[in-house]
Amino acid sequence: MTYHGQKILPAIRSMKDFEKFLNSPYTYGVLLEVHISRVKGVIEYANRQGKQLFIHVDLIDGLAHNEAATEFICQEFKPYGLISTKGGVIATAKQKGIVATQRAFIIDSNALNKSIHLVKKTEPDIIEVLPGLIPKVITKIKKETGKIIFAGGLIETAEEIELALQYGASAITTSNTQLWDIMK
After folding, report:
1. Degrees to nearest 5, angle at CA 64 with 69 and 90
2. Which one of 23, 59, 144, 180 is most buried, counting C-beta atoms within 10 A?
3. Is 151 helix (H, G, I), strand (E, B) or coil?
4. What is the pLDDT of residues 108-151, one digit of tens each?
5. What was the pLDDT predicted at 20?
6. Among 135, 128, 176, 117, which residue's Cα sits nearest to residue 152?
7. CA dihedral defined by 153, 156, 10, 72, rounded to 10 degrees?
């Protein structure tokens, strides 16, 4: 299973990456590390090109990463989806009808258990698991939550992408533009 037919969700770090995304066959992408003054224009331009963006709320420069900021982003920018590590951001995005992705950093079994607990509390639409190279973690989170899983971080080859997909990820988030080309 893939995310709307995509194995890769391009993660956009620069305007050069944004141009590459616009000229790619991908519909869905993730906007990272952007200044607040650019967000609305980038989303509107992407939408005019038939593209849909997840906004990584925790990485927007010039904006707090809380419920009030999330409400502002949803009302003013109208992104396809939001990504955050914060439960309040996820809950607010869901209230506003925006696809909510809970980002979970799995560094040990304690982090895994806390992440599963938080997911069950916030009920995001999607979970992004980092690092994305731990197949048994992807499988466990998918089994325990029943959610769509994105895998991200430290994935460097097509084989690693296929392994993450095989173990239950629906797509891989990556800023490695070479992988965007390989997995078209």
Report:
1. 55
2. 180
3. strand
4. 999 999 999 999 999 999 999 999 989 999 999 999 999 999 99
5. 98
6. 128
7. 10
CATH homologous superfamily for the domain 8-182: Aldolase class I (3.20.20.70)
Taking only Cα atoms into account, the Rg of the chain, rounded to an integer number of angstroms, comes to: 15
Confirm if 27 and 46 have CB atoms less than 8 A apart: no
Q: How many whole angstroms separate alpha carbon 94 and alpha carbon 60?
A: 19
Query: Which pLDDT belongs to residue 1?
Result: 79
pTM given for the model? 0.95
CA dihedral 163, 165, 166, 168 (to 10 degrees): 130
Of 89, 12, 96, the residue nearest 51 (C-alpha): 12
Contact by Cβ (8 Å): 54, 85: no
Measured CA to CA, the distance from residue 70 to residue 76 in angstroms comes to 10
102, 119 in Cβ contact below 8 A? Answer: yes
- Give the contacts of 31 (CB within 8 A, at least 6 positions apart): 12, 18, 39, 42, 43, 53, 54, 55, 56, 79
How many CA atoms does the CB half-sphere of 61 hold within 13 Å? 7
pLDDT at residue 184 in the model = 84
Q: Which two tokens stand for residue 73?
A: 């982003």
